Amino acid sequence: MLFVTLSVVCFSVALFAALFPVNVDYYSLQRFVFCAVIWLAAWIPLIEKRRRGESDRKYSMLLWFAPLLVSFLSGELYGATYRVEPLMFFFFFFATIVFGSRLAQSDCFELTVARFLSVAALSSFVYALVALMNYSFALLEGLENFDFALAWGVPNKRYWSHLATWVIPLLAAAQKKSSLASFTSIKVLIFISGGAWWWILFSTSARGAAIGLIVGALVGVFIFRKSSLEWGRCFALQLLTGLASWVLLTLFIPDLLYGSSSSLGLKSGTSGRIPLWDEAWQMSLLRFPVGLGPQSWLTHPPITDAYANGKQFGHPHNMYLLWAAEYGWILICTMVLAALGAARKLRARRLEYLVAKRDATLINGIVVSTVAACVHASVSAVFMAPASLLIGFLVLTTLFAWLQIPDARNSRIPQQYRWEQRFLRTVAMLSILLGVLWFGEIYRYYQGNLVDRSVYKGQGMMLYTPRFWSHGDYPRQFKKSSGL
């Protein structure tokens, strides 16, 4: 029940924060909520009393992820104006594993995931309805700000594409396996929602999301073979519906009304990412293999001429190059190790499904969502934007829970060890203390972000550069070197 409640909170804030009547901007609200969620999820499962009969494999995933977690924590050893991002990444991955372990011990895991899919589907449907309403207004206004009308509630359409990467595979699974899929009317709404999200994706030319989804779908079909056919059928039908909607709503109707829709067609190219990637690559080699430190992308002197003379953003639109530049290639190696550990467990669970010929529709949506996001992260800040991380936390928690479900053939009741309970509670207390200090830094950084916005506007810039906050510690660095 706790996971379903968190699902409602995360989807509400990720998709609809722009509608909340609060005194902070929606991007900051999403960041505050995300940090609170991962902090709570990191220690609450550790202080729960262990039930008799729980498997001794409960925290086995931590062994594979421990080097990665230590690598992120080591980011605190660097000098930095604000110490926020290393702990954010640490708590994110730590919380998904720990909370996933808790979820894995649930007696009704599949029902919980089915309810999670229902939350995802209904939230996505409401979002799509608002997008359709905005579309009608955009037509009346002559197609002005068409991208913002469809991909609403985000800093720009690229941040919406992060959400689409996580959500679209879930909608294909939800059409068949959500807790509400037994109702024909709800199933139709979920199908419409999936088609609408694909329509927005095509209309905003979200190329990174499209590539990630296609690669993820191929990987999912390869892993589960025939067990994934039902999911693949729903995925393909929703995609075709979205494509037809794009032809009708985005191309045909605007062309009929205004005589042209060329500005709304699919776009190609790298959108200026190559100079950013080259800059991040050169950064990663300066202090190989340890990196320049957290947020050094914001404060380092430009290395390449193309970056110095081009557009400068809060991140290089590639999470892996960003981590390599700031935390070093050592962290990338630990990330590969963690991925190998997850793949090893995935292989074992996959065999269970193939041998028993079980329907993999539900879990295939989770796997495809994860793979798609990891692929998309190579061309965008999927693991930086707070809305994306809120949904990503739910998806990764579900995946790690599935990977850690105890083997039904192992009926041995593990012995309860006092030292183990004390160790877990000690880790929980350290997480609580670390979180309190972390939130102090977060608030201090937020105050600096408010100052930075005034400086940025004073330099004649109207658009912010999102990273941890909508804008932070960026203009003060480049004001001196006239880099803005």
Automatic annotation (TrEMBL):
It is found in: Membrane. It is a multi-pass membrane protein. Pfam families: Wzy_C (PF04932). GO terms for molecular function: ligase activity. Residues 199-332 form the O-antigen ligase-related domain. Keywords: Ligase, Membrane, Transmembrane, Transmembrane helix. Its main location: membrane. The chain crosses the membrane at residues 27-47, 59-80, 86-104, 116-138, 158-174, 181-200, 206-224, 236-258, 320-340, 361-379, 385-403, 423-446. The keyword Metal-binding does not apply. GO terms for cellular component: membrane. This is O-antigen ligase-like protein. The lineage of its organism: Bacteria, Pseudomonadati, Pseudomonadota, Gammaproteobacteria, Pseudomonadales.
